[in-house]
Amino acid sequence: MRYSGFRVIAEALTGHKGWKPVWRDPVPQAEYDYIIIGGGGHGLATAYYLAKEFGQARIAVLEKGYLGGGNVGRNTTIIRSNYLLDGNEPFYEFSLKLWEGLEQDFNYNAMVSQRGIINLIHTDAQRDAFTRRANAMMLHGADAEMLSREQVRKLYPWLNFDNARFPIKGAIAQRRGGTVRHDAVAWGYARGADLRGVDLIQNCEVTGMRIVGGRILGVETSRGYIGAKKVGVAVAGSSSKVMAHAGMRLPIESHVLQAFVSEGLKPLIDGVMTFGAGHFYVSQSDKGGLVFGGDIDGYNSYAQRGNLPVIEDVAEGGMALMPAIGRVRLLRSWGGIMDMSMDGSPIIDKTPVEGLYFNGGWCYGGFKATPASGWCFAHLLAKDESHTTARAYRFDRFLKGLMIDEKGQGATPNLH
Ligand SMILES: Cc1cc2nc3c(=O)[nH]c(=O)nc-3n(C[C@H](O)[C@H](O)[C@H](O)COP(=O)(O)OP(=O)(O)OC[C@H]3O[C@@H](n4cnc5c(N)ncnc54)[C@H](O)[C@@H]3O)c2cc1C
């Protein structure tokens, strides 16, 4: 079923009885050419681009729960390409360009909203660092702008500009950054993949891998054995668990990241804003709730919920920046499991097992990467070589010491 304005009007006049399920519920076949493990944003985008851009067929996505129940439906929906390092900036800019045409591409309303993002500056040294970043972004063809304190004041006069510890001295802005309705991204890719014949198999947990003579032959699942010529793993926070089935130990730790939404408010903030002196980022949903988050919980965990110290830390960050929200009520908080890599950057690569490919290590920045990650992983699966923008994201960077450490924190996953 194609969506259009005409269709919406016709359905509205006939009691919305004509809408059909957006994807099929197929029974797993005995064998596929490609199995993608993980029905999150990255797995679904990979299947979609494999079929659409690389002309591949006989593809299945195996998801242990329901499509979009993982981090793709739990994040704070921020997209941007304001990275500094050579390995990262071209990839995230490629992703932002794909976001810009995504809704037309898969004919689904994902509410891509380029409402702009600003990162606040609180010290002169930070201004120097952000100016360097803005220059690096522009060298890679992205947009960047430095804002003065007065320009920021014009945007958001209610910010705490004269906080004794963290006065606001300006900001770096990326006008093309913004937000996207996260679960609609999963639904749009799922629908697009299904339309091209991809089998989306839910409630199908991968519990083992059949590897003979260094080659993968298929996967054991909660719904039986399924054969495959190639298997791509895109399971985000469960990366270490799933790759353990192939005997691999990854340079990745799993941590919980929490997020929060307030009660609905009148329009307060029309873009995305990040605090430059603490870990706090905020935007306002179309329903009026402030959507915000902060740091990961400081210990390893596979639980999809977090703990109180981080809630307190996020609330403190919010209050330091926006004292006006002091009496706003919190509506909900939730958590997702983050695949934190050693240098804070992702991995899209082959593995030592023939036919087995890995995509992960997205830390808490993988939502914005969804289109490019899917495209580059599909490229790798179909052509057996890395896409140009993802060449830096190979396992051997850890062997060669070529870390892509955007934050400059060293090999400490919980600090990235
Ligand atoms: C609170 C929060 C806020 C965030 N905010 C942002 C943000 O603003 N911007 C941004 O860019 N990123 C953000 N992120 C990060 C981003 O959401 C993730 O990096 C990204 O969604 C991970 O990729 P995914 O969508 O494929 O993961 P997921 O949606 O988690 O998909 C992985 C899937 O694999 C499935 N799976 C696991 N094990 C198995 C198995 N054995 N068999 C079959 N299936 C399996 C899971 O059920 C899951 O559905 C945030 C994350 C969280 C939790």
Please specify the SSE layout and strand pairing.
Elements: H1 5-13, E1 31-37, H2 41-52, E2 59-62, E3 78-79, H3 89-106, E4 117-121, H4 124-139, E5 145-148, H5 149-155, E6 170-174, E7 178-179, H6 182-195, E8 199-201, E9 206-212, E10 215-221, E11 224-233, H7 239-244, E12 252-264, E13 272-274, E14 281-284, E15 289-300, H8 308-321, E16 330-341, E17 347-350, E18 356-360, H9 370-383, H10 396-400
Parallel strand pairs: 1-2, 1-11, 2-8, 4-13, 11-18
Antiparallel strand pairs: 3-7, 4-6, 5-6, 9-10, 10-11, 12-15, 12-16, 13-14, 14-15, 17-18
Helix pairs in contact: 2-6, 2-9, 3-9
The chain binds flavin-adenine dinucleotide.
